[in-house]
User: Fold this.
Amino acid sequence: MQPELTDTQTLLLETVSKFLANEVPLERVRALEASGEMDTQTWDALREQGWLALPFGEALGGGGGSWVDAGCLLEAVSRRAVPLPLLEAWVAGRALEAAGDPDGLVPGLLAGRALPVPALFEAKQRFDETTLVVSDGRLDGTKAFVDYGDCASHHLVSAREPGGPALFLVEVTGATVRCEPLQSIGRTPLVAAHYRGAPARRIGGEAELTALRLSGQALAAVQCVAAMQEALDQTLAYARVREQFGRPIGSFQAVRHHAANMAIEIARARWLVYEALASIDSGGAQVETIALAKASASLAVPKVTMLAHQIYGGNGVIEENDLYFHTLRGKEASLAWGTADECLDLVANEIDQKVDWL
Amino acid sequence: MDFSWKPEHLAFRDELRAFIKVWRTPELLAEYKATYGGGGERIHRFHEAISEKGWMRMCWPREVGGEGRSMLFHFIFVEEMEYWGMPYGNLTFTSVAPTLAAFGSEAQKAEYLPGIYRGELTFALGYSEPNAGTDLAALRTRAVRDGDDWVINGQKIWTSLADVSTHLWLAVRTDPDAPKHAGISIVIVKTDSPGIRIRPLHTMYGGHTNETFYDDVRVPVENTVGEVNAGWPIIMHALNHERVALAATGSLAKLYDDLVDHLRAALPERLADPVVRRQLALLKLRLREHRGLAVRNAWLIAKGETPISEASMAKISATELRTDLANTAMDLLGRAGGLSAGSPGPAPFEGRAEFNYRLSPIFRFGGGTNEVQRDIIASAGLGLPR
Assistant:
């Protein structure tokens, strides 16, 4: 029992936060939102700093870090609202690494030559279901929601083969893969990917697919926590200085109670989310543990960010200020990798089981 | 980051469960219920058995007879006792004893602590007064010095267990001219002292609390805990410990487990209903969320910190969850959920959903209202101006 960040993790978080505050002007983030692009400049910087390599094994040039380490780094990046496919590259890269990385995509990722991202989610299916089929090594159909799909060199696609669902590697080339950009609340690159006879190489079965989904779900929950924490911190800073009736609004009991409720929601989710990451690291990850963490974070996002707006008033909704980033990114993350409802369904499936509360 | 319990924690949990299995007899539970925690012969023997194990004081400093074990063991102890509904010593053990260990004189520690951990001495807390509730520092019960004695006059309310306790842990005004937080002292008073009158106030959750009246009650000045007029921080310390106990998840987890067990055994078709399953999943989520706050709080204490904001969060979370759990459980049980213990029907799992519904309001304002807790979080945790 040592449920706090290590000194190294705290240092990492602070270093990355400071770096991003200095190197990533929010005007650039606003411009990227408008153009629908990822921040390649910051991406290259993260690579050069060795931070992109964090969760990969040393054999592939990685930093040998844990998912908790990765969560800290992702939280720092998410709090700056930078559009970067960090979650996507990490979970796809780790799946490739587990499969022996047949095409050397992980070193390619770390050298800036490749960018694999997961392509799992379909229009009418639950987040953990797939109807696409691979036959004779070819993939046809549509993945309706692929984050950073048009920035990627490869998609890691969930699809069915005769033995059940599996994981396939598809190279993004104009002829067989078409990416159709979507406009979504999070304002980060999101596409529908249409595959037509795309060559698909099997790199894992159902177990590998599940592992990818669990880490993606836990990291999406980190993005929720990051959005909430940033929304709270910005709101507190505002409530200390904004005066009405001759007093800082943060001295009014109604505002103080809103803020306390925000902090409680975040504390609840934060614990479960980092506990979930640690459970993946220790090899004991349960579908339910991760689902509970994501449900907690997803349910908290609208409560926390809407209270932030309630306190912040008109200044919170204008795009010259920074609160809106987190309202929007947070809601996108709460929908991604399993909504609260989908996650609660997973918990409900197991509700007959005896619980070990300790 | 490591969220796992160590083998010694799990071994302790297993040892506790085996111990509780032996002691948790219908007779003991009936006595607990009949005396509302006040205790009788069986409860006394149970306390002696706990004391022999050393569990009452295992986390106390070695100087006062403890083993100096991590507070995580205390957390596990309270969780298991709460889960199984055992009378383990409540506020005397969770609030008075650690506060006495921190602030009491050597003579007081020697006089009271051994008796507390043998279960012979029990304390009722005398803080609130009719006009000093949430604004506790407005309390007016006076202690006036007369030679080596205090002479106490006034009235306390919500003095639960005063009628079955050996002592009162009394907050009194010892300097009426000082600023209101600076003129308060804590005095230990024997409940059988002349001049004390106890009147029961019957409650909607069964049993009673009390109001207590003090008419020229004489107490030796040496019964003052800590310095005279320095009682306020002692009260805060004691309340902080009280909140840790209030934040325990044991009895909440038991309510959830009983509900699922009952549905599985008696109403399998209802348990198969997706709407019911979703409601249960949400309760389970809320329990897991709360448990995180409670463990974090206990762990900070184990580290030697005095969590303030975190303790308030855990207190709010536990107490509001008790209402939600009891309410949802009753709704899922339908009219049967409203049946009280002992009713033909029979009442599902001894009417504990219905009982907890009636019980739950007190925890939301007792030990410091949840509104005050939110103010504490805003100031101590979030740095908002007052």
About this structure: The CA atoms of residues 69 and 294 of chain A lie 18 Å apart. The first helix of chain A runs from residue 7 to 23.
